[in-house]
Amino acid sequence: MIVSGNISKVRKVIKEAKRRNKLVGFVPTMGALHAGHMSLVKRAKKECSFVVVSIFLNPTQFGPGQDLRRYPKCFAKDTHLLRRAGIDLLFYPRQEAMYQRNHSVYVQEDSLSKGLCGKFRPGHFRGVCTVVGKLFNIVEPDIAYFGQKDYQQALILKRLVRDLNFSLKIKILPIIREKDKLALSSRNSYLSPGERTDALSLYSSLREAKSLIKKGERNPRKIINEMKRIILSKKGVKIEYIKIVDAQNLKELDKIRAPVLIALAVYIGKTRLIDNVIINVKG
Amino acid sequence: MIVSGNISKVRKVIKEAKRRNKLVGFVPTMGALHAGHMSLVKRAKKECSFVVVSIFLNPTQFGPGQDLRRYPKCFAKDTHLLRRAGIDLLFYPRQEAMYQRNHSVYVQEDSLSKGLCGKFRPGHFRGVCTVVGKLFNIVEPDIAYFGQKDYQQALILKRLVRDLNFSLKIKILPIIREKDKLALSSRNSYLSPGERTDALSLYSSLREAKSLIKKGERNPRKIINEMKRIILSKKGVKIEYIKIVDAQNLKELDKIRAPVLIALAVYIGKTRLIDNVIINVKG
User: Fold this and answer.
1) Which of A51, A54, A41, A46 shows the shortest CA–CA distance to A14?
2) What pTM value is reported for the model?
3) Do the Cβ atoms of A43 and A173 come closer than 8 Å?
4) Which one of A103, A137, A159 has the shortest CB-CB distance to B104?
5) How many whole angstroms separate alpha carbon B180 and alpha carbon B199?
6) Residues B153-158: contacts with CB under 8 Å, at least 24 apart
7) Could you give the CA distance from residue B257 to residue B110 in angstroms, rounded to a whole number?
8) Which chain B residues have a beta carbon less than 8 Å from that of A111?
9) Residue B163 to residue A138, Cβ atoms within 8 A
10) Superfamily of segment(s) A186-279
11) Any chain B CB within 8 A of the CB of A144?
């Protein structure tokens, strides 16, 4: 495994791999790797002959007062995991290498990014699109892998690839959950043991929504109310949003029709967690 | 010369050229080619072993009420000129191929694009950055050529390349002028014979500015007033702006110091023309 933070070096290594007709798979991350990230890495290893992972805690996707500073950093452990997974190149640039003092060019998505997390994290997806655009230009992957956990992000990045004509394919892989169904997230490390238990209500509410839809419920309002009831049964929990939207365009629905995304963002104490399910409704 | 509007085909042709170790030069245009464009093409031919020209009248860089509809179209003549120049590939995509119905991703520069033309054409440089970002991703050139006539645009695109890590070099080539010093522009075709004569005042004013600076004048206000006097001596002429700015960051100057850009936009009748000079002031 080559480890480098040098953009020119990384370009060179990848260019050489391409010259040898390698298929380049790419998993961009902010580090603090967990089994969710590693599922992307494993898939990349399976499908590609040269796998690049980036670790870059991207400042432009954090708003003021968000958790940029306390975001978990564990480079040694991350490196170990990636080496064991057999990736070819770990790119971990410094902030100054990625954003020059007078950086002034940004990539912005104007439609899919308006709702859900975008509404509560202004500028977040602009930061994501900008850094991913940069990373795509540096790594020039054939396939890039993202998790469904950040479904809105993945959909926006698919749009980015389409609208700016990046020559690569984005694959969205399923959410990886703990045994008790908590969705894996680097931010789970912020939770106290009590909060960790409360956090299970997120998936419980999604499971209940799924079950209601299976039973024939088609009114989003009724489903959301039931989800709220489940989540708010815990103390110290604050719902940022619960939305039922068209899984293709993220538009809110009056009536449930296939396929729908049920997505939520909830504060467990001071920790903001997100989770979602996609449901293929018949009829 | 291969002529195609098909993005996949164009990618394929260029990929094959790269496989044969060709150096790819790129000149993006909106058509209505003149000797200014052709000077870029000639330079590309000289420096690169595979030259791509695009002709695409980009709607996103025109504001409402601007001249998108009446912009001159002369594809047959353009093709003839490019064939004679010996380019390898002419890419002329249709609008629907470049912008899908629900296009929603844009590239925006937030600093250099605020002043000069950017102030009077809101959204213009967003459209330019977006389409050029797309074209760079499709063509993947080693060198892209732009004219100093659109100096602000060229500087913004250099910033785009730097900030989004495009793997290419931008070259800015000198303004090409008619014998009587009118800067070449596709929009000159809008001018009546009388307007054509009035338009000479643009360069006269720039020449006078240059001469004043050479004589030691360092007060931008005084120079601009003199330029205004020259331009407004013609009837039916309206000054949009005359600015003296730092040629590197486009910031307005209180006192002239090297290197400066003197740039102007003037309406001759209904036709908006721009022109500029860069002056390397000593001391």
Assistant:
1) A51
2) 0.97
3) yes
4) A159
5) 10
6) B153/B117, B153/B125, B153/B128, B155/B112, B155/B250, B156/B109, B156/B112, B156/B113, B156/B125, B156/B128, B156/B129, B157/B128, B157/B129, B157/B132
7) 24
8) 102, 104
9) no
10) Pantoate-beta-alanine ligase, C-terminal domain (3.30.1300.10)
11) no
In angstroms and rounded to an integer, the radius of gyration of the C-alpha atoms of chain B is 19
CA dihedral B178, B184, B186, B190 (to 10 degrees): -60
DSSP A248: T
**Cβ neighbours around A144 below 10 Å, total:** 26
Please indicate if any CB of chain A lies within 8 Å of the CB of B124: no
From first to last of its 283 residues, chain B has per-residue pLDDT tens of: 999 999 999 999 999 999 999 999 999 999 999 999 999 999 999 999 999 999 999 999 999 989 899 999 999 999 999 999 999 999 999 999 999 999 999 999 999 999 999 999 999 999 999 999 999 999 999 999 999 999 999 999 999 999 999 999 999 999 999 999 999 999 999 999 999 999 999 999 999 999 999 999 999 999 999 999 999 999 889 999 999 999 999 999 999 987 999 999 999 999 999 999 999 886 5
A196 contacts chain B (CB < 8 A): no
Q: How far is CA B53 from the centre of its chain?
A: 15
CA distance B278 to B158: 17
Residue A190 to chain B, least CA–CA distance (Å): 33
Tokens matching residue B211: 């001469």
From the list A34, A37, A80, A103, the catalytic residue is A37
Rounded CA-CA distance A239/A237 in Å is 7
| CATH code reported for the domain at A2-173 | 3.40.50.620
Q: What's at B224, amino acid-wise?
A: I
Report how far residue B53's alpha carbon sits from residue B44's, in angstroms, rounded to the nearest whole number: 10
The beta-carbon neighbor of B110 closest among A106, A109, A165 is A106
A231 CA: distance to closest CA in chain B (Å): 34
> CB distance B159–A109 less than 8 Å?
no
ipTM of the complex: 0.96
Find residue A239's DSSP bridge partners: A266
Going from N- to C-terminal start, the domains of chain B cover 2-173, 186-279
Token reading at B270:
């209904």
The CB density around residue B104, as the number of other CB atoms within 10 Å, is 17
State which amino acid sits at residue A20. Answer: R
Verify whether the Cβ–Cβ distance A163 to B133 is below 8 Å. no
For chain A, say whether B107 makes contact (Cβ under 8 Å). yes
Q: Cα–Cα distance between B125 and B110 in angstroms, integer?
A: 10
CA distance B10 to B91: 7
A54: contact with B, CB 8 A cutoff: no
| Interchain proximity A106–B103, CB inside 8 Å | no
Contact state of A105 with B106 under an 8 Å Cβ cutoff: no
Helix extents (H) in B34-123: 35-47, 75-85, 95-98, 116-120
Answer yes or no: do A104 and B137 touch at CB < 8 A: no
